[in-house]
Specification:
about 35% helix; five-stranded antiparallel beta sheet; binds ligand 3AM; two-stranded antiparallel sheet; about 260 residues; alpha+beta
């Protein structure tokens, strides 16, 4: 732990401006670098609101983000820490979450969906090459560069559940978000990075059709559907989508992680 005397004060370097949004234990604010005038997003995490275990998770997220250097991953520029907070200075994403764009537009052209998925696949392929598994790919964690570019310029914006795993090692914690979680994660067996590729398949399915592949009000029923890999292409919603796009989905939404397409 750094001594108090070593704490750098974020307000000396950045002018903190409006609030961009709030998460469960973090607030994201807009900030301007006092010397360069460049604007950033600052994620302020209050230490008092989280458990010791969650503090370790934040430290893990920071360590992983510091290591990441990819055009489709929101760049962590700097970290300030004092007794009460962590402040993560990140690239500012002005387009909001892919999630809100999906709610607004319902579905997208195949060209837009392809460009968006290509960028997510590039970013996740990079994570996997660095032995990092993200474990929570979903539209809420995918941020858009600007409103103008829409879904064709996307970056991964949150690494809260990411873990380091080598090629031969596995994670075992059941986590993620119900509709996007891979069958092997639900089966409580050790799993590898292919769980991210499944979630990319779910996102691709939603972008192409405007509907989720797996949906049940009740989580138990939803998990049974996912484990059985039970989804179909409704004729009406998929009628304008190419055979190649459906083929892609069929190769990614595969229950056996060893038979699933990899990012490569
Ligand atoms: O509260 P909402 O959902 O509007 O999109 C993120 C979320 O917005 C936003 O901050 C809120 C809490 O996570 N956010 C996160 N990282 C961001 C970034 N790098 C960001 N907004 C802009 N740039």
């Amino acid at each position: 732990m750094e001594s108090k005397a070593n704490y750098r004060n974020i307000k000396e370097v950045y002018k903190i401006e409006s609030t961009l949004g709030k998460g469960s234990f973090a607030t994201v604010k807009k900030a301007k670098h006092r010397e360069t005038g460049v604007r950033y997003a600052v994620k302020v995490i209050s230490k008092s609101k989280i458990s010791d275990e969650e503090k370790l998770a934040v430290q893990m997220e920071i360590d992983i983000l510091k290591q990441m250097d990819h055009p489709n991953i929101v760049k962590l520029m700097d970290v300030f820490e004092d007794e009460r907070h962590w402040c993560l200075v990140m690239e500012l994403m002005l387009g909001g979450e892919l999630f809100d764009e999906i709610l607004l537009k319902e579905h997208f052209s195949e060209k837009e969906a392809r460009e968006c998925c290509r960028q997510i696949i590039d970013a996740i392929g990079y994570c996997h090459s660095q032995e990092i598994v993200h474990r929570d790919i979903k539209p809420e964690n995918l941020l858009l560069v600007s409103k103008e570019l829409g879904i064709s310029a996307v970056k991964i914006g949150d690494f809260g559940l990411a873990r380091l795993i080598g090629e031969d090692s596995f994670a075992s914690t059941t986590c993620g978000t119900p509709g996007y979680v891979a069958p092997e994660v639900l089966m409580q067996k050790p799993y590898g990075n292919a769980c991210d590729n499944w979630s990319i398949g779910v996102v691709a399915f939603i972008l192409l059709s405007g509907t989720p592949p797996f949906y049940e009000e009740d989580n138990f029923a939803l998990f049974e559907q996912i484990k059985a890999c039970k989804y179909d292409f409704h004729v009406e919603t998929w009628k304008d989508v190419s055979a190649e796009a459906k083929e892609f989905i069929k190769k990614v939404l595969v229950a056996d992680p060893n038979k699933r397409l990899t990012c490569n």
